[in-house]
């Protein structure tokens, strides 16, 4: 009977065959211990010399790291293992022998590991991060489908920019200028006017020359947009969504969180509602913490966001930023023209902003004015303005950066580990 490591609990006491790779091995005279991985998980195979032929035992002792094999044996429970099961091996069939595998159990530098990212993904740590990433994606679809959202795919090649062109990758689109998308938001607003509640999930690109642990050149965004949703409605969707994905990871990825050494008690506290503070309150908090140089109208950097997050054990919304700091499409507050109805959601433990969102301007004349103030050509945004010409309604949306969210929930320090093949300022390989 062929099966996978993730399914062996169904076969306790039975003999099965698993296609796997040798992640590691050790032997002590009369027993060989094979650390098996098959993509679905990791499990130990135990080969006892007295229970197999000499040929099988010698094969088990000599098999090299990352050699691919078919391993046959009896599944049994093992309380000492975090996985809970092991295999009593009866046969080992080598499929392909790996020679001089470059990533050994010793320590390797980050650059070396990044140069071998295509192989580093096989490690137990990286496997765990990718499984958590996959669970967040799965839970995202579950949440929005359950809430009545329609999935819409905005274009990656665009003729205009939602936040200006300074950090966009430029390309030629036959005889026109085009850009790699930095956000699908404008198109999602159009989709919301047709379908009510929509979300997208796709790659976005920022030509930002940043080397921090929070930044990637190419990353993935989840971008919901909702017709007839005002500012407070938007915040409620965000906190419910983030709570849902965190609790889904806790429920379905306990083993992976354990491999990463993640403090799950911190994650168990992540349940809506989340605290809210205004930009003005955040500024006062920073002054009290000794950040005397920052003044009203300055944007918050990583140290400021971290300092604010230290006062909370849950994600915190910072709302009502100065108009001058935010993109052209954000709705001004009713009682203050100098701030907009926006919020950044700051993750705990120093992971920074994971969501940016706002109520969108729904008045055509005000939007025209804002486009002019930002020096953006009205012609390129003609279709976007027409959304306000034909049955405009209040609407809101947000964007969640997947990689920062994966990094926070899994507890890894750098976002380069939260995406399969990271694109960094000086890295386009592999």
Annotation keywords:
BirA Bifunctional Protein, domain 2, OB fold (Dihydrolipoamide Acetyltransferase, E2P), 2 domains, alpha+beta, Asp/Asn-tRNA-synth_IIb, ATP-binding, elongated, aa-tRNA-synth_II/BPL/LPL, 13 helices, 5-stranded mixed barrel, 430 residues, 8-stranded mixed beta sheet
Structure commentary:
The protein has 430 residues and is an alpha+beta fold. It has two domains: 92 residues, Nucleic acid-binding proteins (OB fold (Dihydrolipoamide Acetyltransferase, E2P), Beta Barrel), CATH 2.40.50; 300 residues, Bira Bifunctional Protein, Domain 2 (BirA Bifunctional Protein, domain 2, 2-Layer Sandwich). The protein is 30% helix and 26% strand. It is built from 13 helices and 16 strands. The strands form three sheets. An eight-stranded mixed beta sheet has the order 6-10-11-16-15-14-13-12. Strands 1-2-3-5-4 form a five-stranded mixed β-barrel. It has a three-stranded antiparallel beta sheet with strand order 7-9-8, with no helix packed on it. A hairpin with a 2-residue loop joins strand 1 and strand 2. The longest helix has 23 residues. It is found in: Cytoplasm. GO terms for molecular function: asparagine-tRNA ligase activity; ATP binding; catalytic activity, acting on a protein; nucleic acid binding; transferase activity. This is Asparagine--tRNA ligase.
């Amino acid at each position: 009977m062929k099966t996978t490591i993730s399914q062996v609990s169904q076969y306790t006491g039975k003999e099965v065959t698993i296609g796997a790779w040798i992640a590691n091995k050790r032997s002590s005279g009369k027993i060989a211990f094979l650390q098996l991985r098959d993509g679905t998980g990791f499990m130990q195979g135990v080969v006892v010399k007295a229970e197999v032929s000499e040929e099988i035992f010698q094969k088990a002792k000599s098999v090299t790291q990352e050699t691919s094999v078919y391993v046959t044996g009896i599944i049994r429970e093992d309380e000492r293992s975090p996985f809970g099961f092991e295999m009593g091996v009866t046969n080992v069939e080598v499929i392909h022998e790996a020679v001089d595998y470059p990533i050994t159990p010793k320590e390797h530098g980050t650059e070396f590991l990044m140069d071998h990212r295509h192989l580093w993904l096989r490690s137990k740590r990286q496997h765990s991060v990718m499984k958590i990433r996959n669970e967040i994606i799965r839970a995202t679809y579950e949440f929005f489908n359950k809430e009545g959202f329609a999935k819409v795919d905005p274009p990656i090649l665009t003729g205009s920019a939602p936040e200006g062109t300074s950090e966009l990758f430029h390309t030629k689109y036959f005889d026109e200028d085009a850009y790699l998308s930095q956000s699908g938001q404008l198109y999602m607003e159009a989709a919301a006017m047709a379908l009510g509640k929509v979300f997208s999930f796709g790659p976005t690109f920022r030509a930002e020359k940043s080397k921090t642990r929070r930044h990637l050149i190419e990353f993935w965004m989840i971008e919901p947009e909702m017709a007839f949703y005002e500012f407070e409605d938007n915040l409620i969707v965000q906190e419910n969504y983030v709570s849902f994905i965190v609790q889904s990871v806790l429920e379905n990825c306990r083993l992976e969180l354990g491999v990463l050494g993640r403090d799950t008690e911190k994650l168990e506290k992540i349940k809506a509602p989340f605290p809210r503070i205004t930009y003005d309150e955040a500024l006062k908090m920073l002054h009290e913490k000794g950040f005397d140089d920052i003044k009203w109208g300055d944007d918050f950097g990583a140290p400021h966001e971290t300092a604010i997050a230290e006062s909370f054990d849950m994600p915190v919304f910072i709302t009502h930023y100065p108009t001058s700091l935010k993109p052209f499409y954000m709705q001004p507050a009713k009682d203050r023209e100098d701030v907009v109805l926006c919020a950044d959601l700051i993750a705990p433990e120093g992971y920074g902003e994971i969501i940016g969102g706002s109520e969108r301007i729904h008045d055509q004349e005000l939007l025209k004015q804002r486009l002019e103030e930002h020096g953006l050509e009205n012609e390129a945004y003609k279709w976007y303005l027409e959304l306000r010409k034909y049955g405009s309604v209040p609407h809101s949306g947000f964007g969640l950066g997947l990689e920062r969210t994966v990094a926070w929930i899994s507890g890894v320090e750098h976002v380069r580990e939260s995406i399969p093949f990271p694109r960094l300022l000086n890295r386009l390989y592999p």
